[in-house]
Design a protein that fits this description.
- Four copies of one chain form a homotetramer.
- By secondary structure, chain A is mostly helical.
- Chain A has two domains: 17-66, Arc Repressor Mutant, subunit A; 76-218, Tetracycline Repressor, domain 2.
- Helices cover 70% and strands 0% of the residues of chain A.
- Chain A has twelve helices and no strands.
- Chain A has helices at residues 21-44, 47-52, 58-65, 68-89, 97-114, 116-127, 131-135, 137-140, 146-160, 169-185, 187-194, 201-218.
- The radius of gyration of chain A is 20 Å and the shape is elongated.
- Chain A starts with 20 loop residues before the first helix and ends in a 7-residue tail after the last helix.
- The relative contact order of chain A is 0.12.
- Residues 1-7 and 9-18 of chain A have low confidence and may be disordered.
- Chains C and D meet through helix 1, helix 6, helix 10, helix 11 and helix 12 of C and helix 1, helix 6, helix 10, helix 11 and helix 12 of D.
- The structure holds a DNA duplex.
DNA sequence: TATGAATGAGATTTCATTCAT
DNA sequence: TATGAATGAAATCTCATTCAT
């Protein structure tokens, strides 16, 4: 598989001798493939369907990605890269720790709400026991920054004396992710069983506030401090 | 108890030994199908593979369930029935509200940890936009007791003055479910990315305590009360 | 195949010792089978579908008719018996020959128009190269009376000097049948291609008059005679 | 000539020898499929049987025609196209109207006698209530020329004063078609019941003469004119 | 690079028929 | 006579992948 470019997907065309369409063709395929796999899963996604919605042909999919699985992996890597990029764009270092937590929670929840494809791909990947994630050089070397961001905020809060309880950073991250993820990933079953649409703006707002409160509570945030 | 016992196909076989034994055949198929679908999803699951691991033939799958989708739906319904049964067996009515919450959280988390197949099926169903769930008369009339149980505890806690903050019951339920669900559903990607196995006993214990603390915090549990 | 009762299907129950339901069960099966085969053909008709619309079970179909083909044959025989019965009820012997021809043509056309199932079964049987017809003792011994009826009319007409041209009786019968049959059997393709519904009352009337005219013409009917 | 030549897929292969040769593959499949469907009907025809008698594989049938029904429709369209082509090749414009009628009747009867596959396919299609015909853009826009041809002859005959009776053109066409069609379509049942083989040359000749006479009679052909 | 045709293996589903009681 | 369960064989259709140019 010749795909594992650790540097995500930005690279603005490089101006080499090869036809300038190559990158565009690959991007076109990946965009469609992402929709297809997010919609139907790896087993349910159809190479034919992807090719049909692309400017190019099936042969090119194999030329560039080697196999259906190779394409799926590329899609997965791209999705994680985007998440990493979004995470690393947050600048919470100058905020009051409680406010930083609030903004981090909101950003995380919003990321998930706005990227249902990503959530679906992660669900799908877990159905496959994260087999592709595990096999991906790219993703294993991908530094997810969420923990670092959290670490900084918590350290500052503790130094300032506003966070008073000890809590494992990974647990804290899991907590924030779990709620954010569940709201999107389980939206359809939850909505069906309980009649609540978790996409509604005020439900969304309420859940973010709830999560912020819970997280601050776990950190032992002393409001008065 | 407002829960209308919609038959969950338990009834232990009226006449002991029947002729060619339809119930056993169906149960045999469903047991195997559940494994197959939970493992590979609806698209990835193979009717052939199911039949091969069964005492009967592929033909009988169609005889009893009509189609692969029909079988999947039957499996899904059964899985939800079991969860409902487990939920309704909890008797927390006599416990102190805080203790009841703790036990409810623990039971919920344990249910999920011990039923990874259920969690996977729900993920899969959400990938299908809960289409089968929505189409299932059985499941739509299935009274999920979780909310009732929660309602009772919260009402008692509030009456006793130990729960001091207002919180929506559905949000509370979502909160507990989300953490319980994510721990199992996203175990593989989380483990791969962060190097933590959420199945380990002490992680599990820690997460349950964390969730209990968070929930009690959201309820405004005043320990001294 | 135990079915070949030359005497068609009348026999009013016989009052023997056997369960009185036997004949009714058979008749029930045949009624449904006739619909099914007329609708979908021999290959397209489904034993399951027949059984499902019957008061009895699939097993009984095999008990009484031996096989799908046996049932089809029984249906075919019954259909031809009914036609024979209808034909033999015509009493044209006392009419003026030209009037008799007119009534015979009308009756034939009406028979076909009112028995689309029969027409369809005959089409289907011809698709099978009349294999079942050829193999049927019952039908081979069935005296189709159409030719006799025609023969009588033509003989009388010729004796009276009103039919002046010689014409083969079988050709004459073919002529009348062909138009009557085509109107029903090819109704759907004809209607689609030419936008004319041959079932409409005035089209039907027109065609009957046309056919009568043509037949009388072929017979050299001299009106003034 | 008001006939819009809707392409009937004739075009003799633009580039002589192509690469893997799609047209030949399709034509090969259709030739065999036509035999199979004409022989056994849509329900009775087997895709496997078609593939086996072809130079290619079953897979290609689905590649080119999508489904068994798609292939059947293609066969049906082709059969109708051929008929239209045959019809449009008749040049009766310069003949005496009575002679033109005779040749038209003979050609129509001959067409049917020489294309039993076409007749069988039309029977089969009528069993299906002309559902495929109705759904076929191609066939619905196919201008059947028979009526035009007839119209021209009748108009000339009337202008010349040799055709003296008014008659609906569609009825006239129905008449000619019905006899021609019945002779082939119902050959087997008719032969079985009445012991006459309608394929025999002198029967065929006799029927053509009979039909010509009847048609001219309906037109009020005055020989002396 | 690019393309349309081709394909083998295997997927789901169907069907007439029979068995056990 | 009656019934529901069972079945083997074969039907239709699908899919990722590769070939020839």
């Amino acid at each position: 598989m010749k795909v594992s470019k650790a540097r995500c997907m930005s690279e603005p065309a490089e101006k080499t001798t090869r036809r300038p369409d190559a990158e565009r063709t690959k991007a076109d395929i990946m965009r469609v493939a992402r929709e297809e796999f997010a919609e139907h899963g790896l087993a349910g996604g159809r190479v034919d369907a992807i090719a049909a919605r692309t400017q190019t042909t099936k042969r090119m999919i194999y030329y560039y990605f080697g196999s259906k699985e190779g394409l799926y992996l590329a899609v997965l890597e791209q999705a994680y890269c985007e998440i990493r990029d979004r995470e690393s764009k947050l600048s919470l270092a100058t905020l009051h720790p409680a406010e930083a937590i609030r903004q981090l929670v909101e950003a995380t929840a919003d990321h998930h709400d706005e990227s249902p494809d990503f959530v679906r791909l992660v669900c799908i990947e877990n159905i496959h026991y994260a087999r592709y994630l595990k096999g991906s050089e790219t993703i294993r070397t991908l530094n997810l920054t969420a923990i670092d961001t959290l670490a900084d905020i918590v350290a500052r809060g503790r130094a300032m004396g506003v966070f008073t309880k000890p809590i494992d950073l990974l647990d804290l991250h899991m907590f924030i992710s779990a709620i954010s993820f569940y709201r999107v990933g389980n939206r359809h079953s939850f909505g069906t069983l309980f009649g609540q649409d978790m996409g509604e703006p005020d439900v969304r707002t309420r859940h973010k506030r709830l999560l912020t409160d819970a997280v601050l509570g776990l950190l032992g945030y002393a409001e008065a401090a």
